[in-house]
């Protein structure tokens, strides 16, 4: 390669007071029009790598940077984020934290205005970017009324108005449904073909696999190795090592030969615990749920699927007794819904935290159940020991990795020992290792005869848990049935923004669905067991 | 009425801000009944003509403040200053009128001003650096997200049964740390998003919708100034 657009040589990044460098000897390069996929476990330094390339580190976030970093022939370390604006565009996983202006058009005007471009040029770039991401019909819309998927596309459009040479993406599809995720990657494919250099961190590797010209594997210790493709990475490092590390892999990479077919022990479903009839919820003039009917029996595992903004979280909030303004019938454990009848695992674990350390956090739940201070702490430590998490005991909850925070939020809800567990996107943003541990916790709850209702975008979870599925679209239930029925019912996929793993899709086209479903579950289970769920 | 509403909403935010500040100081310095009545009537007319939608929370907050303010001042005037109940009530009503005028002017300003136009106008008309002018705007943008977090945290604490009457201080403390943590994280991300889009790269920027001072602003300034002058003359003639 003659002139790499992104050049990284022996990069080391150390945060103040950190025991080890976040990045330790990272080297790779990317040419014009190349797509670099960055994979690695949670906390390995992937985001640090993007922030350094963008010039955020050290200009906005202090850290010691050693080694060579060049982006489009410029030094992000010396020029900083603002200096590189126009050359580098960065998009994060959470679109809520990225939009600044109230309307769609103002948002795409914003970068051009800051660069003091002429008005005609700003307008041309803005309209062009909106057309590229398919938002040209939304110019006058208020950004806050857009779905999460559309907001993420807007974030990309806003960055594209800068006409950057390099696009940095930090898990751009983490918050969006599968349909939006595919649309985002279709757009990235077009940008790559138009000559943009793209560096993307992505857990949903199956989306990026075909686009990637090289794969940078950042290991847990912050070091890295470069591979020509995901398959090359898997062949050289091995499925077991990658899964154990926490790297997401599509099911086709696992071999069924080594996988156990063991199904999670499940208590047979009993009497109805949750009955929702003709439920409607409106926020102002916006009808969020319309005549929704849902039933969950004791010990049953129910998944609610649907695109961003379809009303899934609102449904959970009504069942939890948190949202009271609704019409229709909602019965939980034989009476009206009430927060004391459920355990609720929120999308953002920090919202649950009330204490400083992990053991104090767990003890606080026990104290609300009548345990005295020292006894509660003792029992919290015993629980952490029993789960092999004793090293977390005296850690500050806010200093944990995202995966560890999720586990703690799960454990404290388990301590409530409620009959009904409501889980809102329980594995979003987690690597395979922590997803496996969360799935294990869900299986444990179902195995104990608890009713679990989970909301998810992730089709992989469904193949492992095999739940009963309710599909929500625009506030209405448009599908009800088993996973197999969902896979067979292609007509429902569009409304639910559902897309099964490529492996199942291929088998479906070959007409051997039953075998494919069994194999896909076995392969996934195999990966998950390597990742820690079988431990 | 629609036309008037549109005209009021199209006023230059800086002009509106400066005139209302003059009005507030006028009401504070000249505390005669005529002046305060004029301010209450003018502010009420502006709120009505601007068809300002006052949210229930805002109205409740304003009413609570007013009731508390009235009661505390009345008690102070009677017990500390030895006024008769009639005198105390008259003084308290005058003070209330001032507070009502300020609340109504604030409601009018917030209800008829586009935050982006305000930031633009502070920068173009008042020559404030645009990075500072946009701060108020970004703060407004963050407020609903923080309120949403707070609402979710309260709901989850209800699920956890996290409220002990024996240690009531624990509850607000339990909200403080996560809200600070999440706000700081979001603020950092938003700062990165803004700066990566060129915010602050140059000391100047282009405005796609620049604000300017038009005839409408001069007419409004003239009418408002005349109302204040009339009130002042009437007050002096008393």
UniProtKB/TrEMBL annotation, chain A:
Q: Which PROSITE patterns does the entry link to?
A: ABC_TRANSPORTER_2
Alphabetical GO CC annotations of the entry are: ATP-binding cassette (ABC) transporter complex
Q: What UniProt keywords are attached to this protein's entry?
A: ATP-binding, Nucleotide-binding, Transport
Function noted in UniProt: Probably part of an ABC transporter complex. Responsible for energy coupling to the transport system.
Q: Which family is it part of?
A: Belongs to the ABC transporter superfamily.
Q: Which organism is it from?
A: Thermofilum pendens
- What positions does the domain ABC transporter occupy? 8-246, 274-499
**Protein name as it appears in the record:** ABC transporter ATP-binding protein
Top-rank taxon: Archaea
Q: What is its main location?
A: membrane
Keyword Lipid biosynthesis tagged: no
What SMART domains would the database entry show? Answer: AAA
Q: Which residues form a coiled coil?
A: none
Q: What membrane topology does the annotation report for this chain?
A: Peripheral membrane protein
The record ties this protein, via InterPro entries, to: AAA+_ATPase, ABC_transporter-like_ATP-bd, ABC_transpr_CbiO/EcfA_su, ECF_ABC_transporter_ATP-bd, P-loop_NTPase
Q: What's one GO MF term for it? A: ATP binding
Which Pfam families would you find in this protein's record? ABC_tran
UniProtKB/TrEMBL annotation, chain B:
Q: Which residues cross the membrane?
A: 20-46, 58-77, 89-110, 130-150, 171-194, 218-237
Q: Show the PANTHER family listed in the entry.
A: PROTEIN ABCI12, CHLOROPLASTIC
Q: How is this protein annotated for GO cellular component?
A: plasma membrane
Compartments, record wording = Membrane
Q: Does the keyword Transmembrane apply?
A: yes
Instruction: List the Pfam families.
Output: CbiQ (PF02361)
Main localization of the protein described in the UniProt heading: membrane
The UniProt keywords, alphabetically, are: Membrane, Transmembrane, Transmembrane helix
Note the topology in the membrane: Multi-pass membrane protein
Task: Please name the InterPro entries in this protein's record.
Answer: ABC/ECF_trnsptr_transmembrane
What protein is this chain from? Energy-coupling factor transporter transmembrane protein EcfT
């Amino acid at each position: 390669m003659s002139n790499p657009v992104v050049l990284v040589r022996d990069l080391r990044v150390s945060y103040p007071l950190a025991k080890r460098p976040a990045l330790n000897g990272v080297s790779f390069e990317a040419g014009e029009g190349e797509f670099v996929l960055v994979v690695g476990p949670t906390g390995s330094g992937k985001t640090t790598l993007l922030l350094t390339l963008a010039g955020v580190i050290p200009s906005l976030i202090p850290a010691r940077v050693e080694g060579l970093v060049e982006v489009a022939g410029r030094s992000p370390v010396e020029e900083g984020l603002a200096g590189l604006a126009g050359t580098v565009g960065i998009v994060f996983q959470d679109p809520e934290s990225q939009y600044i202006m109230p309307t769609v058009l103002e948002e795409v005007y914003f970068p051009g205005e800051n660069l003091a471009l002429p008005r005609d040029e700003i307008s041309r770039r803005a309209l062009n970017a909106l057309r590229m991401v398919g938002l040209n019909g939304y110019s006058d819309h208020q950004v806050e009324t857009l779905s999460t998927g559309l907001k993420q596309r807007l974030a990309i459009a806003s960055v594209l108005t800068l006409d950057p040479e390099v696009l940095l993406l930090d898990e751009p599809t983490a918050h969006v449904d599968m349909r939006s995720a595919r649309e985002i990657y279709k757009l990235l494919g077009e940008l790559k073909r138009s000559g943009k250099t793209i560096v993307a961190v992505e857990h949903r590797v199956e989306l990026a696999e075909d686009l990637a010209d090289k794969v940078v594997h950042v290991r847990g210790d912050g070091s890295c190795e470069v591979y020509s493709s995901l398959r090359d990475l898997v062949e050289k490092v091995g499925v077991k090592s990658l899964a154990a590390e926490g790297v997401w892999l599509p099911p086709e990479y696992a071999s069924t030969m080594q996988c156990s077919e063991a199904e999670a022990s499940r208590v047979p479903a009993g009497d109805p615990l949750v009955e929702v009839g003709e439920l409607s919820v409106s926020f102002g003039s916006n009808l969020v749920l319309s005549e929704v009917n849902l039933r969950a029996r004791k010990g049953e595992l129910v998944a609610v699927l649907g695109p961003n903004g379809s009303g899934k979280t609102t449904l959970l909030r009504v069942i939890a007794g948190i949202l009271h303004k609704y019409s229709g019938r909602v019965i939980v454990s034989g009476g009206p819904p009430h927060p004391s009848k459920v355990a609720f695992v929120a999308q953002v674990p920090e919202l649950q935290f009330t204490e400083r350390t992990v053991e104090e956090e767990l003890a606080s739940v026990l104290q609300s159940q009548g345990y005295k201070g020292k006894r509660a702490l003792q029992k919290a430590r015993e629980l952490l020991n029993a789960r092999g998490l004793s090293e977390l005991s005296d850690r500050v909850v806010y200093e944990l990795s995202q995966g560890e925070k999720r586990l703690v939020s799960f454990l404290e809800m388990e301590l409530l020992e409620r009959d009904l567990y409501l889980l809102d996107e329980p594995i979003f943003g987690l690597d395979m290792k922590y997803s496996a541990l969360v799935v294990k916790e869900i299986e444990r709850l179902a195995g104990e005869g608890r009713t679990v209702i989970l909301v998810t975008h992730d089709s992989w979870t469904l193949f492992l848990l095999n739940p009963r599925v309710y599909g929500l679209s625009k506030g209405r239930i448009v599908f009800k049935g088993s996973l197999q029925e969902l896979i067979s019912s292609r007509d429902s996929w569009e409304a639910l923004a559902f897309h099964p793993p490529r492996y199942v899709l291929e088998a479906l086209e070959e007409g051997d669905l039953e075998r494919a479903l069994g194999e896909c579950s076995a392969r996934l289970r195999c990966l998950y067991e390597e990742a820690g769920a079988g431990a | 009425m629609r036309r008037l509403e549109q005209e009021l909403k199209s006023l230059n935010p800086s002009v509106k801000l400066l005139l209302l500040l003059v009005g507030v100081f006028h009401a504070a310095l000249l505390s005669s009944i005529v002046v305060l009545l004029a301010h209450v009537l003018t502010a009420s007319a502006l709120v009505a003509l601007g068809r300002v939608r006052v949210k229930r929370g805002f109205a409740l907050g304003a009413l609570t403040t007013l009731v508390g303010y009235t009661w505390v001042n009345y008690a102070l005037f009677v017990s500390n200053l030895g006024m008769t109940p009639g005198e105390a009530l008259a003084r308290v009503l005058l003070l209330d009128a001032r507070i009502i005028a300020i609340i109504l002017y604030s409601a009018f300003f917030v209800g008829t001003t586009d935050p982006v136009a305000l930031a633009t106008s502070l920068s173009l008309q008042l020559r404030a650096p645009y990075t500072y002018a946009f701060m108020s705007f970004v703060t407004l943008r963050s407020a609903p997200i923080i309120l949403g977090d707070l609402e979710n945290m309260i709901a989850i604490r209800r699920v956890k049964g996290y409220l002990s009457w024996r240690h009531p201080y624990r509850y607000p403390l339990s909200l403080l740390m996560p809200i600070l943590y999440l706000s700081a994280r979001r603020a950092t991300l938003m700062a990165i998003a803004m700066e990566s889009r060129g915010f602050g790269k140059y000391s100047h920027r282009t405005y796609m919708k620049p604000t300017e001072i038009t005839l409408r602003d001069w007419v409004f300034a003239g009418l408002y100034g005349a109302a204040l002058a009339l009130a002042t003359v009437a007050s002096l003639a008393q």
